[in-house]
Amino acid sequence: MDIDWKTIIWQQFGAAIDMLDDTIALCPDHLWTAVLWDDPDGAEYGQFWFVAYHTLFWIDLYLAGYSEGFVLPAPFIRGKLPETPYTKEQIQTYLDHCRRKCQSTIEGLTEERANQICKFEWIEASFVEMQLYCMRHVQEHAAHLSFLLTQHGVTGFDWVTQARSIAT
Q1: How many Å apart are CA 107 and CA 1, to the nearest integer?
Q2: Which residues of 111-148 are buried (b: 16+ CB within 10 A; e: fewer)?
Q3: Hey, which bits of 21-160 come out as E strands?
Q4: Number of C-beta neighbours around residue 155 at 10 A
Q5: From 3.90.1300.10, 1.20.120.450, 1.10.238.10, 3.20.20.100, which CATH number describes the 3-151 domain?
Q6: Could you list the mean pLDDT of each consecutive 10-residue stretch along the chain, which spans 168 residues?
Q7: Domain boundaries, the chain
Q8: Which pTM was predicted?
Q9: What is the C-alpha separation between 152 and 132, in angstroms, rounded?
């Protein structure tokens, strides 16, 4: 894959992750469990912390490119809710993990990997298309979270044009 395309994809995917990061960093403790929407599977699934976690889970999964055998880093568990909400610190650590994984995955992208077909129950697409799909998903939930915060008077976010920092 041409290096310019990799840079472009990282800059925009990284910007989406940075915007998600801003919402998490700016979320006051009293809104960490605020409900964005009613979810028929349980109130927790609509809470701020879960939407942030959910977004990171899908970044991690789509960067792996497969579902079967995919393992989350500790303390995260797949397929069920934790006994208590994940903390802001845990979510921020996971975000940093996903940011580094995203950057290194995109930087190391080869033509073969970019064109590799990823198959999930709900979609089948090339690996690179999955990353664009995921970037849209990240931006969607960053917008949901920032909207909730704005409704509660939280300010401090702004549009991020390109990834602010290079992951290390």
Answers
A1: 10
A2: eeebeeebeeeeeeeebbebbeebbebbbebbebbbeb
A3: 117-119, 124-126
A4: 8
A5: 1.20.120.450
A6: 82 97 98 96 94 98 94 93 97 98 95 96 95 98 98 94 77
A7: 3-151
A8: 0.94
A9: 31
